Amino acid sequence: MINTKYLKHSATLALCFFVALASCRQNPTNSTSSIAETTGTSIADTIIYPVLIKNANPNDSWTEHCLSRLEREKFTDQLFEAVYSEKATAYSYNTHEPLTLTEVRNIEQQAEFTRDKVAKLQFWETWRFDEQSLRMTKKVHAILLAYEIFTEEGELRGYKAAFYVKLPH
Question: For residue 163, what are the CA distances in angstroms to 80, 93, 104, 166?
Fold first, then answer.
């Protein structure tokens, strides 16, 4: 005859084992997040900084060297294509409101703008640093495109924001 107390104990033990096993499995909805995003400590919740992506001085060989592997035109075209195909939304730097496709086209039709003048990016990022592994991870939240503005004499006066694109999390 089977001992019912032993059977209840075995069933409870098996149930606990399967609950513990199931809790160790990754949730498929979170499978896109990497381990790097969850390890380490946050050293910059949101940091915003500019990056020059076009050398304004042809005599500056160091900057030319630093940018030599950058495919600036390709990246600019990819961001515009993402907006025009509605895979991404362009936002106004001033109002932080979404821009319509017509408004983006209007930016491109301005006399002072050409895609070739896109010379600066601004990144919104989160930075994490893992002291144990000495690994740093960055998560880009948004990228702003800025283009060159010149004086009447043809000298670089500065950069003007075209728009920014938020990246998916």
Answer: 10, 6, 8, 10
Nearest to 131 by CA among 41, 45, 44, 46: 41
Cα 100 from Cα 92, distance rounded (Å):
10
Report the length, in residues, of the chain. 169
- Could you read off the pLDDT tens digit of each residue along the chain, which spans 169 residues? 555 444 444 444 343 333 333 333 333 344 344 444 567 899 999 999 999 999 999 899 999 999 999 999 999 999 999 999 999 999 999 999 999 999 999 999 999 999 999 999 999 999 999 999 999 999 999 999 999 999 999 999 999 999 999 999 8
Please state the pTM of the whole predicted model: 0.75
